[in-house]
């Protein structure tokens, strides 16, 4: 570490502390009895597993956190699979195929990304109501497909893949579809994994739409369930149970991100996997 | 093995004409080199033959078949790319066997044929590796293996050696020549390097600005360049191209002179209409030799010693510089005054339009 770097390290340290302190406090107090949180202290003085026991059995207000995690997992898997199935071919068509009107259609697709999602809520709700899907997982899953950000990331990546690679495959006898499936998709693996992980995080953390479209504890997703716990007006809110629920339900994503971050960094770099 | 017939081939990119009418016959089993400066259209022409680029005009026949509209994969043609274009997610074995896999060749048969190709190219020990774990020369081998495994009628190479270092280039050059002899297939090889063209080709096609400048064997091009472009392009060091005046001419030869050149004769028949006119005299540096009293005199401005030969630059009093390649054993030094002469049968004359006289 050279001396000029000291100020930079200090700034990074402060930023890291600012980011870590609330997280650390959340985790620490999730292991404390609920009375601890009202005392004036940074670190709890008594410890217990009971919050986690309640998260697993009875979190309150009829909410089942395990059920919510199951719902969220089903929704997440369905959305990630659906997003990839739709985004990959779309990105390929926008990035590497030539067809009339391509750039204009892509522009329209991008415009949908620029519009705040809240604008769609009413018409989407209406649509789901017409289809009789309100308060079901399908109503949570469908509006998330496809994801324009994913199309955008994958398109950038497909565009950067060398033309000669595709031509070599053609000379080897590949049809258009074989070029796509056997050469282009495998080469785009880093970007595909990136989009998959980002979509999983997005799906797991998505709050507003599931809150609107679901209302019974049986179909709630994780963020909705946790927020439901803290929105009780009648009873005394048990904060430490909520902290435990928040930490426990974010564990799957923390693990996913730890495994996926190498790919996310690489997947953003266009020539990843080529050289 | 198949021959090719190009008739009036044109290529336009929008309004820009890149290939301006090419007529060319390639015999079955021939090693043909397209050579020319960067941007002259070599790759474009090769890619049209491959089926990777649409043909704007003219007719391309491979064997007996008109192939203008035939898809690349149905032309019986294989190509080695300048960047090799290996599939980075596949091992060398999978790269080489990819074409067979697409053709539905059973796995065992595929493995057997990949081994066979690997043996020919001496790369059996590389088969398990991915392209990222191979050196430039090894990637080159895999790329060639991928081309030869399907036993195509015609091989296309686009500057395949330009990413290799000099020593490896010489090795691969010989290896490609050997491969051509072994396979007996028709090969079309694109390069901007006239040394590669001279050393490997049965037939050289010199291209410039989208047109064929000359077609011939290496020695034909070297000894009888059809125009100034070919004269300057083929041969290293470059031919001296000097402005001279025709003083007299008949069927047997011509008398020429210039401020830097004492009146002398060349054995080129020159039309009498050109008497009194300026033309270009072409003399290869290797044709010039030191003489006690030659037609060109001057002082040595530069000596480049290559061992067996030395290249010297001689500056004449008239200001014209001339390059000569002389025996490396001869002692010469800077500023030494020397005199150069040449065999009148080995001088080339090019008329006002730049074509050979
Ligand atoms: N896709 C293209 N669009 C427009 N012009 C092109 C394209 N490809 C090549 N050219 C032009 O065609 C000419 C010949 O290119 P190329 O065949 O690659 O030359 P070479 O291989 O001899 O260096 C160049 O002037 C190049 O700029
Ligand atoms: Mg080229």
From TrEMBL, chain B:
Matches recorded under InterPro entries: AAA+_ATPase (IPR003593), ABC_transporter-like_ATP-bd (IPR003439), ABC_transporter-like_CS (IPR017871), ABC_transpr_MalK-like (IPR015855), ABC_transpr_MalK/UgpC-like (IPR047641), Mo/tungstate-bd_C_term_dom (IPR008995), NA-bd_OB-fold (IPR012340), P-loop_NTPase (IPR027417)
NCBIfam families assigned: PRK11650.1
Source organism (scientific name): Devosia geojensis
Alphabetized PROSITE patterns for the sequence: ABC_TRANSPORTER_1 (PS00211), ABC_TRANSPORTER_2 (PS50893)
Main location: membrane
Family to which the UniProt record says this protein belongs: Belongs to the ABC transporter superfamily.
Protein name (database record): ABC transporter ATP-binding protein
Keyword ATP-binding found: yes
CDD domains noted in UniProt: ABC_MalK_N
Keyword presence, Zinc: no
PANTHER family: MALTODEXTRIN IMPORT ATP-BINDING PROTEIN MSMX, MALTOSE_MALTODEXTRIN IMPORT ATP-BINDING PROTEIN MALK
Membrane topology designation: Peripheral membrane protein
Subcellular location, record wording: Cell inner membrane
A molecular function GO annotation: ATP binding
Top-level lineage group: Bacteria
GO cellular component, one term: maltose transport complex
One Pfam family it belongs to: ABC_tran
Domain ABC transporter: 4-234
Keywords, comma-separated and alphabetical: ATP-binding, Nucleotide-binding, Transport
């Amino acid at each position: 570490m050279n001396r000029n770097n000291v100020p930079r390290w200090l700034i990074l340290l402060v930023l890291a502390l600012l980011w870590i302190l609330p997280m650390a406090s959340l985790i620490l107090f999730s292991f404390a009895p609920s009375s601890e949180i009202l005392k004036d202290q940074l670190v709890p003085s008594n410890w217990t597993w009971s919050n986690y026991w309640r998260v697993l059995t009875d979190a309150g207000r009829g909410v089942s956190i395990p059920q919510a995690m199951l719902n969220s997992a089903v929704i997440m898997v369905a959305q990630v699979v659906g997003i990839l199935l739709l985004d990959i071919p779309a990105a390929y068509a926008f990035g590497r195929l030539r067809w009339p009107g391509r750039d204009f259609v892509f522009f329209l697709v991008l415009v949908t990304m620029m519009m705040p999602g809240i604008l769609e809520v009413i018409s989407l709700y209406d649509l789901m109501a017409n289809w009789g899907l309100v308060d079901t997982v399908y109503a949570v899953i469908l509006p998330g497909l496809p994801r324009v950000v994913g199309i955008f990331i994958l398109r950038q990546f497909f565009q950067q893949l060398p033309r000669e690679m595709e031509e070599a495959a053609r000379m080897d006898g590949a049809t258009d579809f074989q070029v796509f499936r056997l050469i282009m998709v495998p080469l785009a693996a880093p970007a595909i994994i990136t989009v998959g992980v980002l979509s999983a995080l997005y799906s797991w953390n998505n709050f507003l739409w599931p809150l609107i479209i679901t209302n019974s504890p049986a179909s709630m997703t994780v963020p909705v369930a946790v927020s439901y716990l803290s929105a009780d007006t009648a009873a005394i809110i048990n904060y430490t149970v909520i902290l435990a629920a928040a930490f426990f339900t974010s564990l799957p994503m923390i693990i996913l991100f730890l495994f996926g971050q190498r790919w996310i960094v690489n997947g953003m770099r266009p020539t990843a996997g080529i050289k | 093995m198949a021959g090719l017939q190009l008739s009036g081939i044109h290529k336009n990119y929008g309004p820009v004409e890149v290939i301006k009418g090419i007529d060319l016959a390639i015999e079955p089993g021939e090693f043909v080199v397209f050579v020319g400066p960067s941007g002259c259209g070599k790759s474009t022409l090769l890619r049209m033959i491959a089926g990777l680029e649409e043909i704007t005009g003219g007719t391309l026949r491979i064997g007996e078949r008109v192939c203008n509209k035939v898809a690349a994969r149905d032309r019986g043609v294989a190509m080695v790319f300048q960047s090799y274009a290996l599939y980075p997610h596949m091992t060398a074995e999978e790269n080489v066997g990819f074409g067979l896999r697409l053709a539905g060749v059973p796995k065992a048969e595929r493995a057997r044929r990949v081994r066979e190709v690997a043996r020919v190219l001496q790369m059996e020990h590389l088969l398990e590796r991915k392209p990222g774990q191979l050196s430039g020369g090894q990637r080159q081998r895999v790329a060639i293996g991928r081309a030869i495994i399907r036993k195509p009628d015609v091989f296309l190479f686009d500057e395949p050696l330009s990413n290799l270092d000099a020593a490896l280039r010489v090795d691969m050059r010989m290896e490609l020549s050997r491969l051509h002899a072994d396979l007996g297939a028709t090969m079309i090889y694109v390069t901007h390097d006239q040394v590669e063209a001279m050393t490997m080709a049965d037939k050289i096609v010199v291209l410039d600005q989208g047109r064929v400048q000359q077609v011939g064997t290496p020695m034909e091009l070297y000894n009888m360049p059809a125009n100034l472009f070919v004269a300057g392009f083929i041969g290293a060091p470059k031919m001296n191209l000097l402005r001279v005046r025709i003083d007299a001419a008949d069927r047997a030869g011509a008398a020429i002179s210039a401020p830097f050149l004492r009146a002398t004769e060349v054995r080129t028949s020159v039309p009498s209409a050109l008497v009194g006119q300026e033309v270009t005299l072409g003399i290869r540096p290797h044709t010039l030799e030191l003489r006690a009293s030659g037609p060109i005199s001057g002082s040595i401005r530069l000596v480049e010693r290559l061992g067996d030969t030395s290249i010297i630059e001689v500056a004449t009093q008239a200001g014209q510089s001339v390059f000569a390649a002389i025996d490396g054993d001869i002692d010469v030094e800077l500023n030494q005054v020397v005199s150069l002469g040449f065999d009148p049968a080995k001088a080339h004359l090019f008329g006002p339009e730049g074509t050979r006289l």
